[in-house]
Amino acid sequence: MYLKQKMRRGISAALVAAMTAGNILTVPAAPTEEGMPNVKNTVETESYQAELNLSDGEMVFKNKVRGEKEWNTADKAMIPGATMFLEGDNSARKADMTAANVLNSMDADGGAAGMQMSGELSGVKSWFFFDNEILCLGADIANTGDTTDKIINVVDNVTVEKTTYAGLTNPANGYRNILKASVDTNEKYSWKKIVDTATKGSHARNWLTASGIEDSQKSLEWSYVFGDTITNSKVFYRFPTEGTGEVKQFELWTLPVNGGYQYTLGAGKKQGDFANNAPAETENRVLENTGAIQAAENESEGTLAVNKWTDGEVNLKGKVAEVALNEAASVVIEKDGAAGKALITVAKPESGASSQITLSAALDAESAKELGSLGAAEVTTDGGTVTMKLDTAKMSSPVSVEVQLKKIDVVTGETITLVRGDEVKLETPEELTGNVTWSTKFLKYDGTYLRNVGSSKKKRELKEGEADGTRKAGDATADHLLSVTGVQDGAILNAKNKGEMVVVAADESGKSKQWKVKVLHEDPANLPEAGPEDYAKIRTAWKESLIGTNLLQEDGGAEILAALNEEAQTAWDAYVYKEGDVCEGIPWKEDEGAKGNANIPYEDDAVEFRPSVKKLLAMTKAYAAEGGALYKNEALLKDMIEILDYLCGKCFVPKSQTDNWWTWEIGIQKDLIPALILIRDELNEEQIMKYTEALYFFQPDPFYEGAINTASTHGKGYRKAQGANIIDCSTTAVGLGALREDNELVYLGIQASSQTFVIQEVEDSSKIAETGYKSGFYPDGSYLDHISVPYLGAYGIEFMKGGVRIPALIAGTPWKYSEEVQKNLEYYIVEGFGNGMYKGMMLDCLKGRSVSRPQGSNKAAGREAMVIILQMVDSLSDEAKAQTLSALKCWLEEDPGFVESLKGAENVPIKQKALEILGDSSIESRVPAVHKSYPLMDRAIHRTDDYLFAVSMYSERIQNSEIMNHENRFGWHQSNGMTYLYDGDKQYTENFWNTVNPLRLPGTTVVPVNIGTGKPDSSGYAQGGDFLGTESWVGGSSIGNYGISGMAFTGKNRGIAGDASVTYAPKLKGKKSWFMFDDEIVCLGADINNKNMNVPVETTIDNRKLDQDGNNGFLVDGQEMDLPVKEANVKELADRSVDVSGVACEDIRWAHVEGTESAGTGYYFPEENTEIQVRRAKTTGSWRDIGTFDGESTENYLEMWFDHGENPTGASYSYVLLPETDAGETEAYAAAPEIAVLANNKDAQAVYHKGLNITGINFWNKNGGSVNDVTSSSAASVMLQESETGLLTVAVSDPTMKNQGTIQITIRKPIASEEKLDENVSCEQKEDGSVVLTFQMKGTNGASSMAELQLQASVYPAAVRLENGESQQFEVRDYGMGIQETSWSVSGTEQELAEGTTVDENGLLQIDEEEANNALVVTADTDAGAELQAYVSLGSPASAELPQEIQDLKITIRNALKAAEENGTDSEEAREAVKLAVEEIADTDNDKLIRYMMDDVLAVSELYQEAFAGTEYAVEEAEEISEDAAELSPAEAQGMALSILPSEAEGPSRAVLVIGEAEEEDGPAATPSNADFVENRKATASNADTEEDAPAAKATDSNAEEPDKKPVVPEKLGGVKVDAEHCYSFGTQLFLEKEDGERNRLSMKAPIRLEVALPECIDPERKIVAAVFGENGKEYPLTWKLEDDRLVLMLSRTGTIVLANAEGEEPENPETELFHVAIDPDIPNGTVTANRLEGPEGTEIILKAVPDSRYRLNALYVNGKKVKTASDGTYRLILREDIEVTAEFRRKRSGGSGSSGSSSRGPAVSASGIWQNEGGRWKYRRADGSYETNSWSLIQNTWYCFDAEGYMRTGWYFETKDQHWYYLLPSGAMATGWQNIDGKWYFLNDITRGNTGWTRQESAWIVNQQQNPGMPQGALYQSGMTPDGYQVDSQGVWVQK
Q: Residue 572's Cα: distance from chain center in Å?
């Protein structure tokens, strides 16, 4: 607001009203001499009225256009302006909060107010009231109460009426009537989803709107403009109906982001003022928004306001004033330049104020005085700055100081020159009368004014009545450069930014007058002294860079000169008006229409006439090149001047832009400036000014682009220049300054580029995902552009082209770069380009989308980089210069064609430098080995003397790729862990990217699908597929030249602003790691999962480009693989419309691909039974397929990949790359690998390198984990290396970049001393001998922190991988501990050791041939008190009996139970662990849970309820039986609570299982009657043959069948006819019951155990069949059993449960055709069984291949076709024909020799006891000589049973101890799983389920029958359903369908 308003009304003061308890800080408006009027908390401007309650932040406001009608309301739950809590059900709750501090400067016209919160909330809030806007800020807001409710800040709550409109972003973007849109059935326009539902706004724009005005103008009452995009500002809205069925309110709120929020309420605009694809600008500007200070200003109103909450001096550089304030206070400055006055008001805190407050404000003050009689202020003015020293003891009320501003100078004359910040006055001309309006405009070359142009669809001047985006037809204003404010007798001009414009005054009669104004950036007095000779130096340097000094004297110069002349002569000869008197039109006819927009005339289309400027440049080069045929040719000069007169008189002149803004502001300058420099000496002053007029007009200030603002076709108009563009703008300024001899322009070129030549800082790495990156170089050497794209090899090069040019141009002149800039430029060269190149090639992973340009290959980009480095190398420091010269020489030697490629005069000095380096014998040709991790751009580079390896990753910070401008269209997976191997073969240099299979890029783990959206992105082209990830764990650590990297990945993604959303694979996830050593790179993958897709997940090992014939040899385990060649084109591969299958390589240990120029690449596979796929490909691709260039080629490839199958669960892989390795070396490495994989799972991935003694570990979980003797407290990347002298180096990083606290690494090794610790590292030695390193991670930005410790002793090697039968020598390394004696021992991690596994007194470990442990621990106990350990892994883990996901879940559940036991059930540790377990259970198939771990699930359910009892998230469970199911009573159900996920909990609630009929609002729901039921089954019968059993529902809206009063009587259950008289059905439904009793259907996310009474109609003595029918009418198997006439059901889904007795004894229809299963009886080394040998069509057959001891399954064949089995050897199929089955078993690998197999006549050979045969019967004698008698014994991991005489049992055996039947095979081994015995199938429990009561006492097993509810392993299933869903009768025989 303006001070003149105050003067007219009388300056009012304000006091705080209705305050709560707490310290009060008040700033009412200034007191007058007469005293202080009453306070008012209401502001009223011409646009709005607002009332603020500072006790709770409530603010109601209304737009005055509507008169007295209210806008919003504070009577509802959501209070506008208030910071509140959002409870679990998304209802708002007022916080228990008080105002601990209040700032208030509100009066009737505006002001500022703020509050500091305490209680349940902490933080600060401020409001700033301007004429048309209310700015609302919040900072440091946090929940300090006892709840975990979300904090929200309510923006508005509007009562919805018939005419209420809103402009929202989703679910349907648009400005619509709320009541109509909320019921619209057309999804394109419907807002039905917002009704009563909190909806997150999602859009790249930053505004929403609302209004109650219904008119054709779409007049708005309020707009809501947020500080960031709608998405990033976390904006939410909904339409509550309040139970009426019709929308009543429009609620709008934000979630504070990092504790803060920022939004502006704008009054009185129109919807047309806001563009859907552009951010909205506000009049106000936020200066600060932190917990310490909140400040803003409105420059046009002359107001600056500050709420400072803490002590400590701050400096604010506002445009209204520059302010320094040292203590907590509130300040409002109101400046009225027209009146020549300002008012400063200051208030102190009512309590806790400092004794003195000091304030200074730079206001161009003449004098100042305190108002009122307090006498609290000592006021002085000096140099225009007002300083106030305030005695707070005297400040009983706010103090105000009136400032008299210096009198504004009156300027005269028609041309005015000002400096930024100048304020002058123009007097109204006498010829103008009446009301005079003032404005600023741009003058065209023809004397008219520039007009607004479109920036979206109409890139030209807008005609009257037209609009484009936010722009409308009209004159373009220049008020961004110069503001003009009309006063009574003239106008005040305020110079803002550099440029040229006119001020126009016009009266009502139509008379007008204009003044030309030039605004300078810098006062000429502040510029360096410069004379004509200095400008001449710049021009000379520029000229020499173009044409050299004397080409005839240079090697090859004559040819260059001839080429220059030929090009110029050709252009001159084609010139239409050659040697004429004037250029009358287009100089070269061929340019007309060749480029640009066909609808724009040539003279107005810069894209079209730029080729003419280029031809002109060619002509000027020939004219200026001494010795050439056209040198100083007068006729040529005359024609060139004519051309310039035309181009710079008609075309490139001050005018509105068309088409591409870049050509007007940057492109033309690149050609016109050098052309003018070359002939400047031939031009007079008038010509120079004429030809440079447009150059200056369009680009007067290198700090900014779009000087003409809305006359520019750029959407943002006037904007700050950034990245490479600011270099171009700076180069323009230097060149233009040299031409015009303009000191300021040259100076600004240096200053602007200096601001660019910086090392960008990362203020808070945890916010990068929200803020993105600024363009430029970063401290880790990264170069980033386009917010989130690594771009060193493209934009980085363009950036440096300017960086290298300007220093050369200004050498020897008064204009210099600072020392800091010089250091930064050196850093770019050494850390950026020095590490980003290999053998002269720019690494492709740093080139962004430019990989899709054939002329921009890595070789071409590398050459561009070398040109830059050659120009800069002599300016580097000695050390950097020596290193760079060595690298240059190496690159030049690797690329001998580079020197000859340096054509043209401009490259002569560069060529000379290159030849000088090559000829200098003192320069060593070498690029040193290095490992460089770039955490800020998700890249890692590993360079050795033989090769370079790079890995490209993506995260929430970095995009997966950049796909825009029709470029890189198939680049979807370029950062999905893509690995690059640069060796002697130039893989990526020519025709790689246009021919490589884009779905099989090396190293990537992907779902191979085309994810291009085909929708226009921000570049306007239909393409898509690039996105940001959602994972933060991406990065690594390094020690010296070694490093590790890792990435957590998921197919779930975040969109890129302006682009269409991308759907890829939302359920895909996994972990990937790379361990980079000297000769090998270890690649691991784990926890690879996907769901709901019919495409396999693949990990590509490599995709090597072969030679032109494709004949490179490929060996697998030494055998040459003859692979068929498959031809395809890239587009077919991208769409997977061709055969992409490969040849399987089974049980592979190593492979080798012959190189073309290199030795080749080896591949070692550490895991046993590894299978990979291989494909030879001949691929054709066009560059046009992936970009905008032509050119087709065909290349040969060898693809290698792991096929993880469709929707894998817990898949993993491991392989080792061996670069530059021949086949023999590969085979030798595979026989004696240097590495051991220590861990490869969802918790950690770890590798040990024996030769380097390095351990690398990536800990994935936020709570860390342990691997061997290293434990981490948090997610981390850790490396350890032990030197031969015992120096332990530890490197630790936080790859998430979100850890603002610490990472603690515990190392269980004895430490002698701390040698060296980084500043952020501390060390503590524990009593148990371990050491704890604490790393402070804040500010480390993903980089490694280091520690060096001296060990006392250790064991070497620390870890090793061995095979059974092998040995390993271990040694103790004593580093001064004084060890004399060592005792060695070895132990197994799973079970007792085999007899032959021993370690002798010298540390020699021998592994038994039959060792069953997968891992061993070798321990060295020393006499010095140290216990040292080493770790041994034995081959690959044995095939798991349990699916991987079940194994992982068991670990999670075990951790939860352990956390509860150790920390207490209600501890935070237990709750977090339980949450994780519940979420993982919800992600696991219910049928699998029932089959493998039902007891575990129920244990978690019980723990879940206990852990959260009494909290806001308490969960309970209950069952209810309705009257129609009363005979099932009593019922008991367990497990329902698990269906209430912790992430979805909304306050205390319980899960209720309703058995029978459920009451709902509309009365009881009915399950279909039997007739309906049968009909429903008929309707779905057509799918029965093809549809697989659906998995148990997990996250659907409902998976329950509604119950029916009538029993359901199907004809059959499980293929068995049922007795209709003995049939019972009942419904089951699951409900979520809230605290208030409200119930809603709950989707079933975990299985339920239900125990009910057996219905009377069911005869327990007869065969019982049972099933559950889902809501789709489909029958699903039901697991059940009888316990004491009680029926126990395991529900995997709710629905209608049907029980029945079978009708008769024959389950099969005798007329049904049966198909047969024939199993080869002569399969050697193993057996194959089937669950049944015949059945009707549709029968499921389960085959299981069981190898003999020390053999493994190699292949299972069904009808001659190899099939893929599960890890336990099972394979399932649907019987549709007779099948024949056979299998192949192979001997397991063994490092030893002479092993023997198990006996075919008896049990397996034991290493810890002796089997003895007595008369054909077997006994087992223990090591102590006793015999196993009357007992069960686990021998060699196999269960045997012995009778009272000690003989081994065989056949059927009834165990009286637990009342179960068992079957002992002829070998004596206890049978498990499905067994065909005497022609009948039985199921013997495959794993132990539940608590069996069996315990070990001494040497015997006993059972407690009171604790025996579970099923032991091997027990026979009877009278019920087997875990895999098959019915067995009372004898245990499978009831076949």
A: 55
Per-10-residue mean pLDDT, the chain, length 1937: 33 29 37 35 88 88 76 89 90 89 74 90 94 95 89 96 94 94 92 94 91 89 93 93 94 94 93 82 94 93 92 90 92 87 87 87 92 92 94 89 91 95 92 94 94 90 87 93 91 94 95 96 95 96 90 85 94 95 95 92 96 97 94 97 97 95 95 98 96 96 94 90 86 97 96 89 90 91 93 90 84 89 91 94 95 93 95 89 95 94 87 93 95 97 96 96 92 96 92 96 96 78 86 97 97 79 90 97 96 93 95 94 93 93 93 95 94 96 93 96 94 97 94 94 95 97 92 97 95 96 95 95 90 96 97 92 88 90 88 88 90 86 89 60 70 87 88 92 88 87 92 90 90 94 83 77 34 31 32 36 50 81 92 87 93 91 85 80 85 91 58 77 83 76 78 82 72 83 72 30 47 81 81 81 91 87 89 86 81 62 61 88 82 81
The answer, as to whether pTM is greater than 0.70, is no
The encoded tokens of residue 1664 equal 């019982």
**Burial of 921 from C-beta contacts in 10 A (0-12 / 13-18 / 19+):** exposed
How does DSSP classify residue 629?
T
d(CA 1509, CA 1464): 13
Cα-Cα end-to-end distance for the chain? 87
Exposed, middle or buried, 1139 (CB in 10 Å: 0-12/13-18/19+)?
exposed
Which residues on adjacent β-strands are paired with residue 158?
A: 72, 250
CA 870, 875, 880, 883 torsion-angle sign? positive
Are 1347 and 1317 spatial neighbours (Cβ–Cβ below 8 Å)? yes
Rounded CA-CA distance 892/898 in Å is 7
Torsion of CA 647, 649, 651, 654, to 10 degrees: 130
| Residues ≥6 apart with Cβ < 8 Å to 1769 | 1439, 1744, 1745, 1746, 1747, 1753, 1756
The conformational region for residue 671 under phi > 0 = left, psi -120 to 50 = alpha, else beta, is alpha
Asked if omega into 702 is within 30° of 0 (cis), the reply is no
Cα–Cα distance between 1822 and 526 in angstroms, integer?
A: 100
Say how many residues make up the chain.
1937
- Strand segments (E) across 144-248: 150-159, 165-168, 174-177, 199-200, 207-211, 222-226, 235-238
Question: Beta strand 1714-1719 with 1779-1787: parallel, antiparallel or unpaired?
Answer: parallel
What are φ and ψ of residue 1461, in 5° steps?
Answer: -70, -40
Cis peptide upstream of residue 1564 (ω within 30 degrees of 0): no
**What is d(CA 1478, CA 1473) in angstroms, rounded to the nearest whole number?**
9
Residue identified by tokens 């490479």 is: 724
Task: Give the DSSP letter of residue 568.
Answer: H
Q: How far apart are CA 1309 and CA 1288, in angstroms?
A: 10
